[in-house]
Amino acid sequence: EMVGPFIPDGDLRSILTSPVMYCAVPDKVLAGIMFAEMAGMWFKFGMTYPVGGSGGIAHRLADFIERRGGRILLNADVDRILVEPKPNGWSKPRATGVSALVSGAVLPPTRLTYSAQAIISDINLPATMRISGMENWPEAFQQRLERMNFSDSVFTVSLGLTNRSVLDKIQGDAEILLADSLDMNENFARIRRGELSFMDINE
Questions:
Q1: How many CB atoms lie within 10 A of CB 124?
Q2: What is the pTM of this model?
Q3: How far does Cα 161 stand from its chain's mean position?
Q4: What are phi and psi of 108, to 5 degrees?
């Protein structure tokens, strides 16, 4: 409503106001002062950009892990978290490893299994629960999950596509939602209705 009188084109307005996604709510329910505060801080203090681009952060983390003896496995589709129902000394199920299909240089895809003292999942909560076995999660927590409202990601990229066939690759359960509209409010509604699918980043 604040921007509308100055920028009548809906698509351009959506692009220029897209930073509201950092608040993880559609702009219809966001107070205008929040966006004004963000924009004002950018104009006053400027914006920062990581050295080496956003990929530079990942490279620094990778260097840190590998210098300490860690190994990073790419092109690995982890589709199962291994869980022991109640190992000795534990009152609850415990994650003990992961199983993944590794592709790329190795064809056909090879099944690999890794065990560790601690397992960290950085995919969304519903997917984590699904690949670790719903039976390992308390029923009360599963019911609570069904009542949760999930927000959109705070990291968004807008691309102009001349070949719409890429939209046919919307599938899988990766961490990327591919929307074919600049209408952020409608995209939020479609996410909640389950109408926006995930794009398999391996594609």
A1: 15
A2: 0.59
A3: 21
A4: -70, 175
